[in-house]
Amino acid sequence: MIEIRNLSLPLGDFSLKDINLTIGDGEYFVILGPTGAGKTVIVECIAGLQRFKRGEIWIGGKNVTGMAPEERGIGYVPQDYALFPFLNVVENIVFGLKEKRCPEKDMRETVGKLSELLGISHLLNRGVTNLSGGEKQRVALARALATSPRILLLDEPLSNLDISTSKYLRLELRRLHEVLGITTVHITHNLVEAEEMADRICILSGGKVEQVGALKDVFFSPRNDVVSDFVGKPNILHCETCNPLGHGLMEASCGGISVILPYEGNDAKKISIFPRYVFIYTGKPPGPELNRFKGIVKSIQPFYSLVRLEVEVGENLLLCEVRKERFEDMDIKIGQEVFLILKLTKLRVYH
Amino acid sequence: MKKSRVLKGIEGEKTFRAATVGALALLVFFFAGIVVSLLTYAKPDILGATLFSREILFAIKLSVVTATVATTISIIIAIPAAYAISRTDFPGKNIVDTILDLPIVISPIALGAALLIFFNTALGQGIESHVTRFVFEVAGIILAQFTVICALAVRLMKSTFDSIDPRYEQVGRTLGCSKMRAFFRVTLPLAKNGLVAAAILTWARAVGEFGATVTLAGATAFKTETLPVAIFLSLATADVEKAVAVIIVLIAISVVALFTLRRISGTGYRI
What we know:
Chain A is an alpha+beta fold and 351 residues long. Chain A has 10 helices and 21 strands.
């Protein structure tokens, strides 16, 4: 278990403010936040790479605050992987084992096991500079895991990869975690990444913990506007009653409107939908009546290249986003009656 | 109207390129002209005889040995000093940085004179009497060369350490290395090209050092006669052929050093 107690650290204009976190044994914990939130600094504090005067770090019931990085039993994969360019793949992997004066036979065994687990057996004698991003990431993981650390720290491990490699490696990381059961702290600014990987997430902003919990808790019950903004300002509808319709669908009554949802055997407590998936029309849109509602525009706010509109539908105030050009074409005014469509496939349900 | 056409668009590109390449060509002709004039001045028979004379062979050997010793000491001191200034923040760092730059900008003859004055103080005379003699001795050549090149070695090594991401060392620490082990197992191998380049440049600078050497160690034939001192002594006795032969030796040494450096540059090091 990792415990961060009252950690405060001023770093020039930025500072970590009274961080308190508890990460359970074997947990996959994701620290999520925008660039400059202080995610890397927290990981560096856990690893012992950043010194601080206020606060404590406990690992496995032991206060490690004053301990050097090499005494903490940490595996660390930095954002750029930092593979040693003067060593080949296998030499990188056994770097930590050599430092521990591990017998040759054990080293070979570890390399064999890890290279098979991570699918890098064919790369062992290659130099590291010409590896692809995904290969580098796997070699860096093998190097970090070779010394059998108690904790694995991953600093934005997927941010330098293309979308398809990143998606594939997300699954690989999750599988690796299931196989090894190692306590993992993964930092990212990517909500999708956090959603796919995390047992629990911590939303960090401006050096401050905003909310900690399972993603669905954070998503459906954001503690404040900072968290809500960071997770995309989803519209949250509270369901009062649910009625299965058959064909895998159900009807939920939410604040005076009936929303059709995919039915998964449980009643829905809350529904969420991102503003970008709430489509707005000035006239009655063509097509089926599914999740189509009439509402009154209550506010209009420019938002970068978009316009955000709050529309009162029943007892709910739904936020929707449209591109500025489309908004100008529609010429919508406050108080005007409009039609909204909630895209069925983008509705998220909290059971 | 005509002027703007020459300075803008494709014509402007051509004009700019011609101006920059012209400046480069002028510089190359200038240096090549100096070397060619030396080579045409040297008579092959006198050049051969002079190069293999006992005095010039002594000067070559003395220059190579003293420069190698001075470079080795400089690099051994420069590595930790440069690392400290590159990776550590401390009060007065800018002042320390400026002091380290002084030997680069101060005239070598002034440095030599300062050393000579130091050995006239009580402490200096104590060192001369009880440790080793420097004034007008071979040890003085090494000290003079060290004084001139050490700051250069620190500067070159600092830029090498500056260019290495500290993240590598941090990863080394999490893999079980102590601070010192991480330095030797991670940072130093990463600095290898920069280290070799710094050694070559400082060695070449030490071989060519004259001002501080002649002031502290004097210009005694067969004793403190390095290659630059040999040129000085030859010119002082109006033996121009001999001076030309020694200059050609110095140029040859520099060319070999620079080509080696260029090979290192090709494998990733830039200065």
